[in-house]
Amino acid sequence: MKIKWALLTILFTIATVLTGCDNPLMVLDPKGPVAATQADVIMISIWTMAFVVLVVIVLYIFMIMKYRASKQRDDYEPPHIEGSKVLEIIWVAIPILIVAFLSVVTVKTTNEVEATPKGYQEQEPLVIYASSSNWKWHFSYPEEDIETVNYLFIPTNRPIEFKLYSYGPIASFWIPQLGGQKYAMSDMVNTLHLAADVPGDYMGRNSNFSGSGFAQQTFNVKAMPTKEYDKWVDEIKATAEPITEEKFNKLLEPGHVGQSTYTGTHLEFSPAPEGEHAGHSMHGSSDTEKTDSEKSDESTKDSHEEHSEHSNMNH
Amino acid sequence: MDYFDRFAVPHPSPAIYASMVAIGLTMLAVVVGITYFKKWGYLWREWLTTVDHKRIGIMYILSALLMLFRGGADAIMMRAQTAVPDNGLLDGQHYNEIFTTHGVVMILFMAMPFIIGLMNIVTPLQVGARDVAFPRLNAVSFWLFFMGAMLFNISFVVGGSPDAGWTSYFPLASNDFSESVGSNYYAIAIQIAGIGTLLTGINFIVTILKMRAPGMNLMKMPMFTWSILITNFIIVFAFPVLTVALALMTMDRLFGTQFFTMANGGSDMLWANLFWVWGHPEVYIVILPAFGIYSEIISTFARRNLYGYNSMVISMVAISTLSFVVWAHHFYTMGHGAMVNGIFSITTMAIAVPTGVKIFNWLFTLWKGKIVFTVPMLYSLAFIPIFTLGGVTGVMLAMASADYQYHNTMFLVAHFHYVLIPGTVFAVLAGFTYWWPKMFGFMLSEKIGKWSFWFITISFNVTFFPMFITGLDGQARRMYTYSESTGYGPLNMLSFVGAIGLAIGFALIVYNIYWSTRYASRNISNDPWDARSLEWATHTPIPEYNFAIVPTVDSTEAFWDSKKKGFKLFGGKVEKIHMPNNSGVPFIMSCIFFVWGFAMVFSMWIIAIIATLGIFACMAHRSFEKDHGRYISVEEIEETENKLRGAK
Amino acid sequence: MKIDNSLPLEYSTEENRLKIFGFWIFLGAEIALFATLFATYFVLVNGTGNGPTGEHLFKVPTLMLQTIFLLTSSFTIGLGINAMRLGSKKAMLSFFVITLILGLGFLGVEIYEFVEYVHEGATIQTSAFLSSLFTLLGTHGAHVTLGLFWGTFIILQVKKRGLIPETANKAFIFSLYWHFLDVVWIFIFSFVYLKGMM
Amino acid sequence: MKQLFPRGQVMGFAFSLILTLVALSVIVFDLSLKMAMIILLVTAFMQAALQLVMFMHAGESEDKASIYTNVYYGLFVALVTIFGTMLTMIWGYQ
Fold it and tell me: D31 falls in which pLDDT band (50, 70, 90)?
């Protein structure tokens, strides 16, 4: 009886909690193709797993209701049962099938979210360098030759390629409604593909613990139609101050700063750790044969991804 | 004075000063108390120098309980801080220190020693052995763990706590970003305790493989013993990785090496990699023994043999092997391509298969049984659905593409608490209650036990279920505060309420120990639960030699057979028994280790060198020592046996 | 203590058998330990920063000298155990002494090599490559050093107490340790030095 | 005297010296990386096996099966650690 009550309490709690949310949960409320793929995967996995949980719970309730001592005769002696080949094969085989199904989903979608989003392949992606320092985000737009701090404006309906790195501890660049996160690290550049379908304001943050000011290391993302975006860029170019090495070094000092905007990017005097500037061992190799391939780092990476997609398909 | 500045806490708060005073007073009270009651001799002879696996086990469990409350206090403070938006109870730095120590203490100084404690008490009894293979080494293991734990715990009053998370990722944990000695404590205290754990691993593998009672072949071992055997294999092969990782960390912080630095070719990711190469098997080190405990308890109180014994064993072997090939799922988002993430997704999800086998085997152990709802059984039964929830969210997290959204969020926090609390904490509480009468000769109150069970189980869900939701709503883990506009407030408050309930539940356990010690009947049989394995075949309290006559075994449940089918467990006659001598060297050596560790933390090289020499001197002493143990004579055994029989 | 005379001395008591088996398990842990150090080295081998590379540092003569010393010592300690099983205390002690002298020779060359490296500006702090190189070699070297002390203690004990189950057991376990260090060296020789010089 | 130098061990020692010389060939001759790695792997593992079986007597006691299981499991973990680390730290990014 007590267990029934416990279950009811749990269910009640869950129900209260779920109805307590007015807005849909951020991760399940995607505003871009990458986040949409991920939300789909999450829902697929939740339903699959709900089935597993249901099977377990039904069996569980059946067992503890039916075979409790209070419902048995006093002289009942439970039998000795070794096990059952058939049953055991069933509960090995079905989970294998479920795992196989989820594996296929995972491999397929992982390749998807690691590439330019579907439907956006034709467009030239907008490259934005997003670098973290304690405890802020610097966004450099090499194409537009501008730089912002702690806020990000992006055009909708255009693929965006974030180049992530860090001037300190590992940070994780995350805009839940546009797509999952990726690490920004000091010795190499990671690429994150995102795109926004819908104009709007989104929350972005560092989600990887990076010291005492970590909680406030957030930034605002504003997605807007290309026209507005271009207008914004022009405005910045007309009004903002240029970024200098001195100013940038001041920005790098640990602490919180508000939002600010500059013309030019810090990449000119403080290049990202990619290509010849990479600190990571495999790039920083002194082998001469490697330097050539580094120049075409991008192309090799892409071809590799294609390659892995094929190999995973064959799997 | 400058010299002593290093011992000051960098971010003092009234709470820390209060703790300093409290710790000082408690230690003083303990010393005065022992002196007053003239117990120093007793303490030294019976406990500090003991090599008896049962006493070492009890000391492990006491330390683990102590650490449970230390880690629990941290947890309550965390939940209190995040209960409302923009709370000013703790500042960011203090919060960071608290979640760091909470993680380290709970995993390494609570879960592991609690399990090792139960393992110490039960395993030799279950295999019908007189002690572990290397009793002296066992004492070394315990004292190294204890000194490591103590060294870690003084950090918050001497020099400052570590504050880079229990994962201690570089470069955050480097001298550049963690200036206090906190991370030195982390590297060195865990190192000392880790060496102790590694020695335990070796000790128990040898004990189980070489010291089983006649007739007990591998496939006739009780399931708990099987789980311990497999766990110790994982310990032996995973802990050296931690040893190396921590050594590299120590060298980076103290000697200026470049392993995880941002310049000169270092790789911060390498730390994360090595940490999780150890870290993932570590999860199974604390989970597999729990599976063993549940197998024993469920079968005992369903009054039935364990369903699918063979597949239970095979699934544990499979889990242990898989545990070594999944670690990269802890950093899918580090930027390795889709291929690497795909491989690790699949290996990770594969673990669900053997784990599922175990769940269904437990369920079918209940089938046609006669279930008695004792406190240990309640924990075991609550474990099944809650752990299933933790397990299926694990499968969800294993899917790399979706993990990009779960990673570093409260969803992950909820998941691993849903695995570790029903998996490990419920198991050790169940095992603790179950084997308590064997350890102390009386039962814990079932009534108070049930109260604490319901408090813990319900509050656990109230605390951790909301985190799944806030995680999906974008709340990152380890945030000391959030603004009201995020809307995380109400659910976090709910978690805090749950945390209070958990605290009440644990307090009730303490009260239960107190109450039962005072009032519970001492007149219990050797086998109060009507159990099935060999540890219940000997007397309560257990004589130091465990079994006067070594038992003979011919099935997985020899003791049950002896009760039901008249199988003869103890053939033959009493012979003199060889027992190891007590020794003070393990304790002394571990104290020197403590001094060494302290000196290393604060870069006091001369003391560190002297302590190193002291440690080697202890080892050399051991090499030259002639210690052949002692014999207990037949008369003495018979006298003890008669006394124990007469007591009933 | 029950002594089983049908077995070699080192296996003759239950305690001895437990110890030998336990030491094998310990060697399993050592495999994992050195594997981690190798993994670290392989990841960081190109992380030379502004420091010298392996190609620049490694020299064939010292390498061969070290290898010959250690291989031969592994051979002589095997002979020592063989002599012990034949019951020849004198021959056993001689082989053990030769082993330790060879080990000392190995250690001498290694220290010489380290000093050379430092003279060339390659310290443990220079680059990630050098940190991992010194740590891998140093851990092996520290094991050898420990072995020298351990071996000396065993020689003293055998001398004083003769060949009894206890001392024979210690000597045998020590031989396992010593052979294992040779195995580790072979991998260092192949995948650190030879690969680095390729 | 002959007893003190058993044939098996002397042969083993000679063989290990030969293997060392074979391994040395990778720096003497101009081999491809692949070829050289194969030579190194083969010689190193043969040497290790030689030590294990010939000198360490891994198979002589009643615990033969446990000892070999232990060594194989150690080898498994070692290979997983080394190659897995290479995979996640280096090969995964190329």
Answer: confident
* Interface confidence (ipTM) of the complex: 0.92
The one-letter code for the residue type at C72 is T
Write out the residue range of the structural domain in which residue B152 sits: 1-287
In chain C, which among 54-73 make CB contacts under 8 A with chain D?
A: 60, 64, 67, 71-72
Mutate to test the interface with C, among B202, B233, B631 (most CBs of C within 10 A): B202
Residues 6+ apart with CB under 8 A from D73: B233, B237, C28
CATH of the domain at B123: 1.20.210.10
**How large a percentage of chain C has pLDDT more than 90?**
85
Among B319, B245, B232, B248, which Cα is nearest to B279's?
Answer: B245
Strands A171-175 and A179-184: antiparallel
pLDDT value, residue A286: 36
Question: What is the average pLDDT value for chain C, to the nearest integer?
Answer: 93
Contact yes or no for A161/A126 (Cβ under 8 A): yes
Q: For residues B177 and A168, is the Cβ–Cβ distance under 8 A?
A: yes
The A residues from 245 to 304 touching C (CB cutoff 8 Å) are 280-282, 284-287
> Which chain A residue lies closest to D94 (C-alpha atoms)?
A301
- Domain ranges in chain C? 9-49+57-197
Residues of A with CB under 8 A from a CB of D: 188, 281-282, 300, 304
Check: CB of residue B177 under 8 Å from CB of residue B252: no
Chain B residues touching C51 at Cβ < 8 A: 264-265
CATH of domain C9-49+57-197: 1.20.120.80
Distance, CA of A122 to chain centre:
23
Residues of C in contact with A284 (CB under 8 A): 46-49
pLDDT of residue A7: 57
Domain boundaries, chain A: 2-68+83-113, 126-270
Q: What is the CATH code for A126-270? A: 2.60.40.420
DSSP readout, A51-104? HHHHHHHHHHHHHHHHSBGGGS-TT--PPP----HHHHHHHHHHHHHHHHHHHH
pLDDT digits (tens, 9 = 90+) for B154-190: 998 888 899 999 999 989 999 999 988 999 999 999 9
Full-prediction pTM beyond 0.95? no
Identify the segments of chain A with pLDDT beneath 50.
1, 20, 281-315
Q: Cβ A53–B388 below 8 Å, yes or no?
A: yes
The structure tokens listed for C44 are 């960081």
Residue D73 has its nearest CB partner, among B210, B233, B267, at B233
Nearest to B531 by CA among B260, B293, B198: B293
Counting the structural domains of chain B, the total is 1
Distances (CA, A) of B590 to B48, B375, B620: 11, 37, 15
Question: Residue A285 and residue A291: Cα distance in Å, rounded?
Answer: 8
Q: Are A119 and B413 contacting, i.e. CB atoms less than 8 angstroms apart?
A: no
pLDDT of residue D40: 93
Tell me if C37 sits within 8 A of C135, measured CB to CB.
yes
User: Which of C40, C46, C133 to mutate: most A Cβ within 10 Å?
Assistant: C46
